Amino acid sequence: MRPPARGAARPLSGAALAAALLLSAAAPAQAEPLQGPRAADGKGQELPGMPSALDPEAEQVVCTPASREKAEKQDWSRQRLDLDRLHGHGTGAGVTVALVDTGVAAGAAGLDGRVTAQGSAGDDCVGHGTFLAGLIAGSGEDGLTGVAPEAEILALRGTDRRGQADAALVAQAVRAATAAGAEVIAVGAALPERDAELSRAVAAALDAGAVVVAAATPDPPSRSDADEIPSRTYYPAGEPGVLSVADMLPSGARPDGVLRTGGVDLAAPGAGVVSGGPRGDGHYLGAGASVAAAYAAGAAAVVRAERPDDSPGEVVHRLTATAYPADIPQLDPYAAATTVLDGSGSVSVGADRASGPVTVRDTSDADRTTDRATLLALLGTAGVLGVLWVAFALPRARARGWRPARAGKD
């Protein structure tokens, strides 16, 4: 009985080989979607979180310590914004971005020599402002490039030393930015009440030609009670002419637990984002609408450098008109810097818009479905090949009396 067993094994092993080859070709397509989300949301990197404020009730102010960890790979946000491609067209050179937040450490990694701090803004105890400055203008020498790596940063304090925002401080900082001639003003604070002095400061900044970008909402509360807080407009994002920016996940959706608001103009990456801090050369993970606003401010700096004669309204329109279409348009800096708009301000037909790498829809479910369908198709193909192999080899083996092919030739 050995010869029949050997003869039957030959066609079966051929079918198995064909199936193995087909399945090995399918394996990368099946594995890739599983790797993406882990890298995209920052969970694959062990980094400390960057707070937006310190405990206001603590007896002593303890500044955010230096991180001892460094990111091992580029986070999803920079890949999503395709910064390498953007920097082939513009880097924000010659543009000053005023950052109104917790301050910016002038000697922070990737920012040395391009930060001017007014008053106490050079002391960033929280670290949040320095984190945002890296997203706007990081040079990349620490491995993390900002959207506008050749822009200048004007650091202004819009909070107390613990990071608690104050309308009077924000208004004062906006006026200082206007007086200094900043082309872009980024405000990380989001206040729940409108303030008359802040409204006047923002209006004066816009009249002076500055693009004002602000976080659409504060960072979510530490408790999970965001759903209990009613939807409202936050300021200065709610002021006329200000670009209001919200945070988004890799899927394009807003994160769970964010505060609700309306009138958002633009969405940008705002979860699992990596940047540096004011002390040491380590990295942190940050999140929130302020992070998204920093990215949008960097994009505004690149546009201003490339189109210095555009008004603030024209820059804001360009950022929103070239954004990836969604319920909330999603920032595409490369398109903003390169797309040709027609006379009405609309994207011209035939513009190289579709070639952009930004894909904001969450396609992971569809990818898995496609992978399963592909796998089933390949298994079916392997099965058909196996049947054809058996159909071909079985008659030949029977004609040889189940002797091996070599023995039939003796």
UniProtKB/TrEMBL annotation:
Chain spans, region Disordered: 29-77
Keywords, alphabetical: Hydrolase, Membrane, Protease, Serine protease, Signal, Transmembrane, Transmembrane helix
Compositional bias (Basic and acidic residues): 67-77
Record-linked Gene3D superfamilies: Peptidase S8/S53 domain
Domain Peptidase S8/S53: 92-327
Transmembrane parts of this sequence: 373-394
Biological-process GO terms, alphabetical: proteolysis
UniProt keyword Metal-binding present: no
Protein name in the entry: Peptidase S8/S53 domain-containing protein
InterPro entries linked to this entry: Peptidase_S8/S53_dom, Peptidase_S8/S53_dom_sf, Peptidase_S8_subtilisin-like, Peptidase_S8_subtilisin-rel
Source species, domain of life: Bacteria
GO function terms (MF aspect): serine-type endopeptidase activity
Signal peptide: 1-31
UniProt record similarity statement: Belongs to the peptidase S8 family.
PANTHER family xrefs: CEREVISIN-RELATED, PEPTIDASE S8
Active-site residues (renumbered): 101, 128, 290
